Amino acid sequence: MALPFKINRDHLPATLRFFGAEGLHFLRDRLLGRDSRAARALAYVKETVPQGDPEGLLRALDHFGREHSFLMNVGDRKGALLARTLRESDAHLCLEIGAFCGYSAVLMGRILAERDGRLISLEASRENHRISQEMVAWAGLADTVDLRHGSAEALIPDLEGPFDLVFIDHWKDLYLPDLERIEKHDLLRDGSIVVADNVGFFDAEEYLTHVRTCGHYDSTNYPLSVEYRDDIPDAVEISVYRDGTRERPIPQPSSS
Ligand SMILES: C[S@@+](CC[C@H](N)C(=O)[O-])C[C@H]1O[C@@H](n2cnc3c(N)ncnc32)[C@H](O)[C@@H]1O
């Protein structure tokens, strides 16, 4: 079976430890017939957080992801960077690819609600789409976050932009094709911000080469750790789109 990502070999021992432990948890959950992690995270939120409290909901998910079962949310540290980027921008219309259980949708939605903005979030899994919708509704953000079920590939052509900020966080081998799809459908404007999660933990070389060398982005890398795992390096790439005014840099011959 082909996996939808390549791991970054720079941190191989920590990465293998992570996948070993997670593989065992996955098998245990399957053997015990437990609900999915996203479903258990939603149940935990409903038990512990009152409705209409997005901050409390995010704290509960962070606690669940650290202390109960790992969750593939952007998490508290990388999430703080995403929140700061959104807060410091004037973004009103945002796009997310990959909702999972709705953590980053709530994180962005609570900021956008304060400025009458809107987030469209695309989620390919039917179960995750339902769970993230319930999570967003529990946070009181159903009017701000529009969760759509389907693959980015299928949904992007029908979107109406331009988007002020795009958060890319779905299967890693789709980052570049879906960003190119967004570009092709004119969904970015000069100054649009593209935030890509997990570009240190996974091998995102093709995506990073594109945003760093195609000549349409000012791109910065922020090294941080994997969500809820302080021992495993990860990174977020934040790229600001520049509207076709600059030429593609001429590749320099290597000195060797
Ligand atoms: C890492 S999780 C998203 C985490 C979420 N952004 C957060 O930080 O809370 C990735 C999600 O992307 C979804 N996904 C995978 N491929 C997709 C695609 N082609 N289009 C839309 N969603 C996709 C998966 O079902 C999964 O729920």
- The total of helices stands at 9
Arrangement of strands in the largest sheet: 3-2-1-4-5-7-6
| Alpha-carbon Rg, integer | 18 Å
Which small molecules are bound? S-adenosylmethionine
Distance between the amino and carboxyl termini = 39 Å
* CATH fourth-tier homologous superfamily: Vaccinia Virus protein VP39
Class by alpha and beta content? alpha/beta
- The CATH architecture name reads 3-Layer(aba) Sandwich
The whole-number mean of residue pLDDT values reads: 91
Number of structurally distinct domains: 1
CATH class descriptor name: Alpha Beta
What characterizes the major β-sheet? 7 strands, mixed
The CATH topology is given as Rossmann fold
What proportion of the residues is helical, as a percent range?
40-55%
